[in-house]
Structures are given as structure tokens and as C-alpha cells.
Amino acid sequence: MSAPLLDPQLDRRGFLRLAGVAATLGALPGCSSADRRDRIVTAVTRRIVGPLGAAQIDAGRVDPAAAADAFLADLGPLGDALELALAALEWAVWPLVPKLRPFTSLEPTEQDAVLADLRDSRLGFKRQLFAAAKSVGCLAYYTSPESHGGLGFPGPFGDNTAAMQWSDEV
């Protein structure tokens, strides 16, 4: 006969196992995979797009997490691979990346150092991880119409009228 799941004499190891299963299933507050992914996308986007973009994100004018949700869902298997890359960026530790804590809990300068290490690595898989994070961050930011003003281009992208007026002025 197996022990009940909620044994009143649950030891430390059993508690940690139960908490891990609950977190994996999203049963703990703030532990759902979508919530975690949204925090990772926002953190990566803030570091990739620079101070102007970070200010727009902080002010709530651009929501990279909502944009990422939309395009990752439409990408099928590629979206799944990009989500795995984001999870690897969040949870990977030294020696793969120069950090011991989740990416979202690092200070901005530490996040920049992690991204720079991935970008400048001699190892192809680390550069691919950076490329995936950069792609998600850029898509999440630049698909938002609110980001277009900071580019100096009137947008929206795909509307030729504004582009033609802009090119005539230049």
C-alpha cells in the first residue's frame, strides 16, 4: 500500500518533492509557466531594446509579454523551441552561463553580463541561445505599435502610405 499524497508526517524531502510537483503543474501562486515566461520575456526585452524601450515598458506603454504570447502561440514547434530557450536562459547556471540565480532575479547589469557572455561565446549553442532570446525580445517589442514612435518612423509597418510620406520628407 502506498503512502497518501498528503501524509501528515511529511518530511523535508517529501515536502520539497510535493512543492516541486505543485510548481510544475502551476498550482502555486506566481509559479505558472505562462507567468514565468512573461517575466522572462519582459526582462530580456528590457535589456535588448535599450533605455528608451525599457522606459516604455516600465511606463506600461509597451507590453512585450502580451505580444510574445500572441506570436509564440502562432509559431507551433518553433514557438515551443523559443520557449525552451527562454527557460534555459532563466534556469541555466554556471558553467553554461555566468550566473547562479534565475535570470529574472538578477540586477540589470548582471543580466547584461549574462547576455554578453552568450553573445560573445565561442560555443555555438550559447550564441544560438542569445539569438533566440534576442529574437523574442525584438519581436515582442517592435510588434507593438507604441514602439514605432521611438524609431523615428511613423509606422505602422505594412502601411505604405506613411512610409511614402516619410521618405518624401527625408
Strand runs, count: 0
Looking at the structure, what is the overall shape? Answer: globular
Largest sheet, strands/sense/barrel = none
Structural class comes to mainly alpha
Count, helices? 7
Low-confidence residue ranges: 25-31
Element-by-element helix/strand order: HHHHHHH
Helix amount: 55-70%
| Proportion in β-strands | under 5%
Average predicted confidence as pLDDT: 80
What is the radius of gyration?
A: 20 Å
**Terminal-residue CA separation:** 79 Å
Describe this structure in words.
By secondary structure, the chain is mostly helical. The protein has a domain at 32-145. Helices cover 63% and strands 0% of the residues. It has seven helices and no strands. The chain has helices spanning 12-24, 33-58, 64-74, 77-91, 108-120, 124-142, 160-169. Helix 3 packs across helix 4 (77-91), helix 3 packs across helix 6 and helix 4 packs across helix 6 (124-142). The longest helix has 26 residues, at 33-58. It is globular, with a radius of gyration of 20 Å. Mean pLDDT is 80; it is low at 25-31.
